[in-house]
Structure formats: C-alpha cells, structure tokens
Amino acid sequence: MNNFLSILAYLSTLLLLGVFVKSKVKIFQQLFIPASIIGGVIGLILGSDLLGKYYTIIPKEWEVIVRSVPGILIIPILISIPLGMEFGKKTKIMKNTINTGGILFLVTFTQLLLGYIVNFIFDKVFNIKLYKSFGAELNSAFAGGHGTAGVVARTLKELGAEYWQLAQGVTVTLATFGLVLGIIFGIYQIKINSNKILKTEILSEYKNGYIKEKDKQPSIGKETMLNTTVDTLAYHIAIIFGVSGIAIISLDIFKYYKIPVLSKVTVWSYGMLLMFGIWKIFIKKGIDWSIDSKVKSRITGTLTEFAIVSAVVTIPIKAVASYIFPILIVCLFGFYITWILIYKLSKRYFKSYELERSLAMFGTSTGVFITGLLLLRICDPKLETPVLQDYSLGFSITALLGPILIATCIQLSFIYNYFYPIILLSGLIILTGFSLEYYNKRVD
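RE: above sequence
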C-alpha cells in the first residue's frame, strides 16, 4: 500500500513538473507539448536507462509497477466511453457527419494497413524480422495518442507476448512524432491555404495551457448528486470502476471455463458492451439525469494524464532505438498518406469548409481530439461554423470502434501473421470506400 501511494506521488510530481516546465520553456509552448509528456520525459531521464545507471534515484521495483499502469488505466478509460452517450435521443444525422465518420474510418483502416505493409516489406524485401504484431502502433499512436499505448501493451500482455513493453514504447515514440508534426504541419497548411489570420489570443491560450481569467474558466461539469448522499465525482468513478471490475471478474470466469469466443475477447471490448447495456438501463429507468458527460470526461482525462506519464517514463530506450528505422519509415509514410487521404476526400465529399474539416480530422488522426480542435479553433476562433458538431459526432463513432479494431488486428497478427490483418483491412477499406461513394451519390 505504501508503494502504491509512493508511486502515485512520484507520477503526480512528474506531472506537476511538466506543468511548471511548460509554463517556463517557450519551445514546449510553441509545439503545444502536453505537460504529461514533459513530465514523462523527466521521469525517463531519472530512470534506470539514463541517470539511474550512475546513481539510483528511483527504486527499480517502482519501474516494474509503473510499466503496467497504462495497460491498467486504459481499461476504465475505454469502458467509460458509452456512459453518457446520447444514442437514446432521436437526432437527425447530417450528411457531413456521415462523411466525417466515413473518412475517419478510412484513415483508421489505412493507417493500420500501412503499418502491417511496412512489416511485410521489412520481412520479405529487407529480410529483417520485426516483432509479429508490428504495424498496429501507427494508428494507435497517431489516431489514439499516447494514452492508447496501453491498448497495445494490454492486448499483447494478455496474449502472453514478451515484447509488450517494446510495443508500448514504439507507440509512445510514434505518438510524439505525430503530435508535434501534426500541429506544425497543420498550422503551416492554415498559413498557405487560408486567408484567415491566426488569432494570437487563441494560440496563447493553448500554448500556455491554462486560463487565468476566472470569468473565462469553463465548468468541469454539473453536480447531479447531493453531497448528503454521495459526491458526484465519486458516483461517476464508482460506476466506471464498478463496471470495469465486473468485466475483469466475468472475463476471468470465461477464461477459467474456456467459454468459446467470450474467453478470447479483450477486457475493454467486453466492458464496453456491459457499459452499453447498463447505460441503456439508466435511460429506460429514467435515471440518466444522474450522469454528466463532462464529469465523466474529466475522470477519463485524469486517468489518461497518468497513463501518458507512465507510458513515457517506462520507454525501453535501447529496444526502441533498435527499431528507429522502421519507426521513421512508418511515421513519414503514415503522416504523408494521412494528410493526402483526408485532404482529397474532404475536397470530394464536402461542399463547404473543406479546409476546416480537413484540419480538424488531420489533427485528430495524427494527435488526439484536442489537437484537431486546436487547429479548428485557429481557423474558426468562435466556432461559428458547423464543423465542430460534425467532427465531434463523426469522431465519437471511430473512438468507440477504433480500440476494438486495433486489438483485433494485434490478435490476428500475433496468433497468425501480418497477412491476416492486411486482408481484413483491405476488405474494410474497399467496403467503406464503396459505401461512402454510394451514399454521396444517393443523397446528392
């Protein structure tokens, strides 16, 4: 128990150091580097691979535990996604929302396919054997961000892969490349393709990473419960962790009795289905008012920050360095193809705000949702266009299914080889492409 509190205090200190360093170092502000990544790098420097070689700063047993944190925290982060979703309401889905979701799906499938093609080329052309599941990291890193490194690590760990820590490190490295390059390239595209002026007040707000003016500070959510019964935050946490616990225990029972199919699914895939069912019950019983989506997002956001710090702290530097060539190849090709695909499809399927839509989707597909929002707000400071609504709804669908697809591809490549996910993804790309084209011809 003391170890748990000590490690939590250590990760918290790194996170606070990241906030402090970002507030003082302009280069981190210019590149919009999150405090969690900066804090993680500080921890990496203090770790056994660098300064720890000469003087023990952090106990080695801490590193073993911290290494598992991203894979643990990703469970409640993903399981919580259905909670608070408005699928119970009848909403008219607009054409632009469907096109946004379709393009993001195509990007997801293409990034995964490209990663596995690189694995194939290294194996068959260069006769260099990469680890079996190398390839899924590109989409996990680019479209999922640093926090999704836990998906890769957890899936491989459950499969018994010895290289799960290396794959987690590769994902974190790719995520860093994608985040930085995505922001720089996005701002460059705004300058050369748009007559709009970059709004310095918007940029400074994102660069600094804090809001001083009290009247501009947004609320983190509504208090749906009275403290005389239960704290609202505790109520939301209890639901998220409670369902996570049920999923873990149920899956252990399925594995113990070797129940077909169910014993092979990932814990978060099963947990998300459980949460869907529970949220449906909340809606049916009329108690959905007790859940506030903003409160839930703050909880998962907090967990994600600690997952990122942990993932960066435990990057296996030597092992990742040995993979630097395939990492650079998959990163550069992935980056280029992602932009071309989004830009061309946006020009084809959108009749208005093509640049804004392209940048929002590109930011999300190389960084995280907030990266896409950042680029959108530079183009559209007051969010007066309908882009944010279409972008948010389209993203929510891919965010729900993306981790399941990543886990499926990892399982296929680990159990068999990279040919199986290549065939699956090729089929999905063709199907999605035809569906998108057919839909647009039908509604035009």
